[in-house]
Amino acid sequence: MSKNLFYLDDLSPGMRFTAGPITLTEEAIIAFAREYDPQPFHTDPEAAKTTFFKGHVASGWQTAAVTMRMLVDAAMPFAGGSIGLGVELTWPRPVRPGDALSVEMEVLDITHSSTKPGRAIATLRTTTTNQNGEIVQVMTSKNIVFGRGHVPGQPV
Amino acid sequence: MSKNLFYLDDLSPGMRFTAGPITLTEEAIIAFAREYDPQPFHTDPEAAKTTFFKGHVASGWQTAAVTMRMLVDAAMPFAGGSIGLGVELTWPRPVRPGDALSVEMEVLDITHSSTKPGRAIATLRTTTTNQNGEIVQVMTSKNIVFGRGHVPGQPV
After folding, report:
1. Contact B39 A89 (CB under 8 A)
2. % helix / strand / coil in chain B, to the nearest 5?
3. How many other CB atoms are there within 10 angstroms of residue A2's CB atom?
4. Confidence (pTM)
5. Which stretches of chain B drop beneath a pLDDT of 50?
6. B65 and A68: CB-CB below 8 Å?
7. Which residue from B147, B111, B142 is spatially nearest to B126, judged by alpha carbons?
8. Surface of A (80-119) touching B: CB under 8 A
9. Does ipTM surpass 0.90 in this model?
10. Each residue's pLDDT tens digit, B32-41
11. In Å, what is the CA distance from A37 to each residue of A32, B91, B121?
């Protein structure tokens, strides 16, 4: 990986990172849903018309997965990786075929470990928006971040 | 779908539903990670040995996705579908190749809509465990549930 990596020492609340877009085609929505979320409003554009969503929509889990892809590619460039302990997710509006999703990740808080030097828990908010700037997912996560010389597997 | 569907009227706190197992092979873990979470501890069993996880692990988003598959298949048999507004997820331990995952979903609370008859928000806790009964994911979700005669697209 040639991207510029961020260590604990480089991070502070208010920092923002962005990535995207990734476009979700009708075919991609159907393929994901057949494997992981086989419900008519995700797998069948015609049947979807009479459902709660009144049309074909992506699984929220696909929105989460492509959000993760954008975080790994560019918007969460942490040395040692993007390692989440837990997340809160909301999906305020559905993703529809052809939507182009982007993410913005903001560092909300950094809490240093009291027992492990060079390690902290970062609280991060990742907002996923469509091509109209409408929010389709908000994720707040707790991630492990490592200081220089404290990344597992990297030489000190 | 021939499965027995549950309506709002059929649900009450304390009810539990189960499904699984689904086994995550090394190949499946790598395939998911290459698309959605391309980090060495997910994509490269050899390189994973020196990472935080000290070995090859599945993406937490894959655990979430296969959990959803088990909910749709059997453990969340709600008329009108499994429609989540938001979730909280924790991953207390990683999923490793060969792990066979199962889910248990418990209804925690049902809050009837004050404005929409025949509709409620269910609070649900879904626990995903491996073949040793160890918890790999806990999800608490808010889902829309529909009463008989109030499912979108179904005749009254």
Report:
1. no
2. 25, 35, 40
3. 4
4. 0.96
5. 1-2
6. no
7. B142
8. 80-91
9. yes
10. 999 999 999 9
11. 7, 20, 20
